[in-house]
Amino acid sequence: MGALFSVAEIRQAEQAAAAQLAPGTLMQRAGQVAARIAIDLLGETPAPPVLVLAGPGNNGGDALEVAANLAQAGVDVTVVHLACVGDPSAETAHALAKARASTAEFTDALPAGGPWALVVDGLFGIGLARPVQGEARAMIEAVNALDCPVLALDVPSGLDADSGAVIGPDGVAVRATHTVTFIGNKPGLHTFGGRDYAGEVLVARLGIAEDMLPGASVHLNEPHLFDLAFVARLHDSHKGSFGDVAVVGGARGMAGAPILAAKAALFSGAGRVYVASIDHGPAYDNAQPELMFRDAANHNFDGSTIVAGPGMGDSATAIRVLARALDGDSPLVLDADALNLIAASPDLQSRLSARHASSILTPHPLEAARLLGVTAGVIQGDRLEAAREIAARFDAYVVLKGSGTIIAMPDGEAAINPTGNPGLASAGTGDVLAGLCGSLMAQGWPARDAALAAVWMHGEAADRLVAQGAGPIGLTAGELPEAIRAVLNRMVAERPKRAGQPQS
Ligand SMILES: NC(=O)C1=CN([C@@H]2O[C@H](COP(=O)(O)OP(=O)(O)OC[C@H]3O[C@@H](n4cnc5c(N)ncnc54)[C@H](O)[C@@H]3O)[C@@H](O)[C@H]2O)[C@@H](O)CC1
Ligand SMILES: Nc1ncnc2c1ncn2[C@@H]1O[C@H](COP(=O)(O)OP(=O)(O)O)[C@@H](O)[C@H]1O
Ligand SMILES: [K+]
C-alpha cells in the first residue's frame, strides 16, 4: 500500500512482465485503462473533442492506444503525433496503425481550435532524457495555457518521475489535472513540483503481479505506517505520564518562535511544556499561561524531550546550550538555528553523530543545503536522496520540509507526505511541526513514528483549516495547534482502543 518505485525499478518490472506476455500487451492495457479514465473525466457532457498528444517513444504509443480506444467508444478525437527520428518500437508502430485506422483525426501541429473537453498528454513518460525543446515544448506551453482537464499518461511530460523536478535548467512540463501512472506509483509525482504538475494520481498496475516489483523502500506517508503509536489515555494518569518538553530558542527579537513550538507541544498532549530562552525571555505568556519559562543557560534538561532551534540565534550561549543538549541522552528535535549552528561546526556535527538517544532533524531545503554543503537547488533536485544522505550521515531521522515533505530514516527507508497545502508557506509553521515532533516523543512515541505522524497530522490540520475557509491565503501558524489537537484526538478515537504506552 502506498509503495513508490524508482524509474529503474519500474523498468525492471516492466521488462520482466513483458517477457511473459504477448508483444504490446502492456501498452494495450495502458491504453484501455487510460481511455476508461478519460471517459470518466468526460462525464455526461456530449462531445467537444478530445486532444491526444502522442510523443515519439512508447509514451506516445500509450497515447495512440488511448486515441484508438476513445475513437472506438465514439469520442471525437484529434491526435497530434510527433514522429520519432528512427523507427518506433514495434508496439508503438502497431498502436499508430490502430489509431490511424480509427476515426481519430490526425494533424501535424497543435490545432488552434478547441475548446477541448480533455487533453491527453502522451508526449514523454519515464524515458525523457533531456529538457523538452522545439515543437514539443511549444505544445506543452500551449496545453498549459488551456483551461480544461489534462490527463497525463504515466508522468506529466517534462517531469522527472524520480525527483519531481522539471527536467533541465530551463525546462517545461505539462500541468496535468490527473495522472494515470503505470505499473507502480512514483516518488516524483508527490514531492517538489510533483504535486503541482501531476494533479490527482491514479495507479494502473496493468495486471503486473505484486511479486514482479521489488520491496519498496519509499512509501507515501499514510496513517497505517504509524498506527500502532496511537494510544488511548488511561483514567489513572497524571501530567508526569505524558512527558516534559523543553523548547530551546527565543533569542532577542525571536521570542515568538519557541512559543509556537511550545504551544504545539501543549495542544498535542505533552504533560509539561517549558520554554528555555536563550536571552532573557518573558516571565509568562499571557495567551498561554500553561507554558513555563526558564533561562536556557541554567535550565536542567534531564528527563525532558528537547526541541532546539526555533529563534535560537547564533550566540555563544546558543552554541553552549546546544552542545549540552547534543551530549545529553534526551530525545532531541533539531530545527532552524540549531541546524544552522550544526552545519557551521564540525564539533557539533560529531556530537550529533555520537548521540545514543533519538534525534529528529527538521530542515527546510536551505537548512538541508547548509548541512550537506550544497545549494538549495541541489537539495530540491533530489529531495529523497538529500534527506537520506543527512539521515545516514548523522544517524538521525530527517524531515525535509516543503511540498511533499520527505521523512528519511537512518536505515534508508523513506516516506513522502501527501497532506498539507501552500497555506503552510508562512513563518512559524515549521516551529509548530518541531514542537509536535517533540511532544509525541515526550509521550513515548518512537522517533520514527513521531516524525511520520507529526508531518502527516500537521499537513492534515492545515488541509482541514483550508476546508473551513481559513486558508490557504492567510492561514497562520498559531491556528495550527488547535487543529492538530482535533486531528490527533480523532485519530485516537477512530482506532482500536489501546491504552498505555505507544508500541511500534
Ligand atoms: N513498452 C511497453 O510495453 C510499455 C511502455 N509504457 C510507456 O512507455 C513509456 C516509456 O517509453 P520510452 O522508453 O519509449 O520513453 P518515452 O516515450 O517516455 O520517451 C522516449 C522517447 O522520447 C525521445 N526523447 C527523449 N527526450 C527527448 C526530448 N527532450 N526531446 C525530444 N525527444 C526526446 C526519445 O528519443 C524516445 O523516442 C512509459 O512512460 C510508459 O508510458 C507503459 O505503458 C508500460 C508498457
Ligand atoms: N507549499 C507547501 N505545501 C505543503 N507544505 C508546505 C508548503 N510550504 C511550506 N510547507 C510546510 O510548512 C512548514 C514550513 O516550515 P519552515 O520553512 O521551517 O518555516 P518556519 O521556519 O517559518 O516555521 C513545513 O512543515 C513545510 O513542509
Ligand atoms: K506523459
UniProtKB/TrEMBL annotation:
Residues annotated as binding AMP: 401-405, 430
Pfam family of the protein (one): YjeF_N
Requisite cofactors: Mg(2+); K(+)
GO MF entries: ADP-dependent NAD(P)H-hydrate dehydratase activity; ATP binding; metal ion binding; NAD(P)HX epimerase activity
Binding note for cofactor: Binds 1 potassium ion per subunit.
The protein's role, per its UniProt record: Catalyzes the dehydration of the S-form of NAD(P)HX at the expense of ADP, which is converted to AMP. Together with NAD(P)HX epimerase, which catalyzes the epimerization of the S- and R-forms, the enzyme allows the repair of both epimers of NAD(P)HX, a damaged form of NAD(P)H that is a result of enzymatic or heat-dependent hydration.
Subunit structure: Homotetramer.
Protein name, per record: Bifunctional NAD(P)H-hydrate repair enzyme
Source organism of the structure: Massilia polaris
Lineage of the species this protein comes from: Bacteria, Pseudomonadati, Pseudomonadota, Betaproteobacteria, Burkholderiales
Gene: nnrD
